[in-house]
Amino acid sequence: MKKIILSLSVLLFSHSIFAQTVEVSSPDGKIVLSVNDEGKPSYKISFSGESIIKPSRLGLAFKNTMPFSDGFTLSSSKEKSAKSVWQLPWGERKNVTDHHNELFVTFSTSDKSDAKKFNVRFRLFNDGVGFRYEVPKQKNLDQVEIINEFTEFAINDEKKATAWWIPARGWNRYEYIYNTTDVASVDRAHTPFTFKLDSGTHISIHEAALVDYAAMTINQKRPGVLKADLTPWSDGILVKTKTDFKSPWRTIQISKDAVGLLNSDLILNLNEPNKLGDVSWVEPAKYIGIWWGMHINANTWGSGDKHGATTSETMRYIDFAAEHGFAGVLVEGWNVGWDGDWFFNGDVFNFSKSYEDFDIEAVSAYGKKKGVRLIGHHETSGNVTNYRNQMSDAYALYEKHGVRQVKTGYVADGGDIKRIDENGIIRKEWHDSQFMVSEYLHSVTEAAKHKISINTHEPIKDTGLRRTYPNWISREGARGQEFNAWGTPPNPPEHTTILPFTRMLAGPMDFTPGIFDMSFNGLGDKSNRPQTTLAKQLALYVVLYSPIQMAADLPKNYQANLAAFQFIKDVPTNWHESKAIAGEVGEYVAFARQERDGDDWFVGALTDEKARTLTLKLDFLDKSKRYQAQIYRDGKNAEWINNPYEMIIENKQVTANDELVLPLATSGGAAIRFKAL
Prior knowledge:
Elements: E1 2-8, E2 18-25, E3 31-36, E4 42-47, E5 50-57, E6 60-62, E7 73-87, E8 95-108, E9 117-125, E10 128-135, E11 143-149, E12 152-154, E13 162-165, E14 179-182, E15 188-189, E16 193-196, E17 202-208, E18 216-222, E19 225-230, E20 239-242, E21 245-246, E22 249-255, H1 258-262, H2 266-269, E23 285-290, H3 292-295, H4 311-324, E24 328-331, H5 360-370, E25 373-379, H6 384-400, E26 405-409, E27 417-420, E28 426-429, H7 434-448, E29 453-457, E30 472-475, H8 483-486, H9 495-498, H10 534-543, E31 548-551, H11 555-559, H12 562-570, E32 575-584, E33 588-595, E34 601-607, E35 612-617, E36 627-634, E37 647-654, E38 659-664, E39 669-676
Parallel strand pairs: 23-24, 23-31, 24-25, 25-26, 26-29, 29-30
Antiparallel strand pairs: 1-2, 2-3, 3-4, 4-5, 6-11, 7-8, 8-9, 9-10, 10-21, 10-22, 11-20, 12-19, 13-14, 13-16, 15-18, 16-17, 17-22, 18-19, 27-28, 32-33, 33-34, 34-39, 35-38, 36-37, 36-39
Helix pairs in contact: 4-5, 6-7
């Protein structure tokens, strides 16, 4: 599994003339990683004999001490292998296999008077590589401030490789339309950063287990050399910590095709096991909400004649939820603070005081009788000190009224998160700074004390922490459905064919699918509206995974089309197994998922602006069973611009030996329930 190579080199100013290389491979032998100390610590990766990451720098720089890079040599290495199966309490699958080979290397200096060292731990899976820095306690290195991370990802043929990416360090956080360019045209990008080499190999760079550290973005140092670019504090320091510390894992998911990326568990496998103990109170489910009406100007968050979050309106939504089997009703705008210019003044929010027309005690009691929970909402407007000061009381209030899920919001421009420091001075921080990484996690751990799950909007990106803290049940972190109401431009047809291969590689997203009325602003290709067919809206429930899925439209629009609404009622949010079965980034994608604790399977398939026909093998089904395929697909004349509603609902009996031919309209889709007979 590992081999050490000593080569003669002329290393000016080095304490040794020998450069050392250590190699380790993935369990299937297809991925090979080499670590080298010639000149400076570096690594490279090949996949099936192809060089995919050229020699790339490793190391860190600290304020007030020498950089941990040049002059450090590879002084020791250890390797081991591990294989285990662990269980997700909820998720895309129940059982997750962790099979990896590990290489642990130490880089050190020869200065005996002030020797320094750092470690890098590499783990190679069949679906990619993860590595992290581990800096132990050592002489003259206690409290440290990181001012640079030298980590590079150098790739071949940057002008031939295609990348799908959104800009980092921008005002709109992660909520951008994806760019499709060659890698050479990328500036600073968020992760997951996905690209396809000219050979067809697909790669995605991200990170796992981001705790008490700055988020990593990607900056193109020079053509083809992608460098880790950590988001700074307001004072310019990247990370403030002390030895002994560990960085997040830098991850490189690798596949011979696009579909392989979707079936990777690498991010989850690099996170720590559940730290919360019994999490039976975490409840995956579907919900409806007083939400979409505000986005299409039918209601308001603030008080007044059009106030959405009233006692009577919430009870009406609870009645609808109970009738159709939904577990919760999200209520936004119930608490004082929404009147006036709240976007720029998060001080106004009171998270325990309701408007006079909303009786939280009466609403929660009414929901309890109906078997429907109230889903809470806290908008901070980026004023995190105001939120932290009220958090404990606010969660206690929700716990008292049986609330098990809270949607939190941090609406503020990137770099405008407001905190009050220990000296009473207002500081502005980035959403993905080290400060906010810890602030988001604090809300999750505080919520756990009250048996509450958190669905974070305007969040820090997902890095698999749902394994460690299973009550971090979902989050946003990309352009969601609301941009189709007022986004100008709204999400383009290709948006949801890119998300699975980029944002969704990180973890669940609360996209809020299920809009049935496309014409609230009129049809056509220029207006703000969902740029999809109705069938594609159904397919999103399977394709874009979240353990909490919202039926986002108004109840009256579902009552007008109960036949199509039946799929939303039937589709689960918790799965025994999930398999991507077809797809190309930005073109089309299809997922098959088996319900947890049941025999039924569900398939979602969707396409970009191009109509196409997908032929899907059904070999994922149980070979010993027959199934009724309940199919919801685009009609013969369906197309998203002027005829988005035409849909065919049909039933067929099928087995695992069959194929289904699915004609998809422009920006169309298909949603299928395979009911075991």
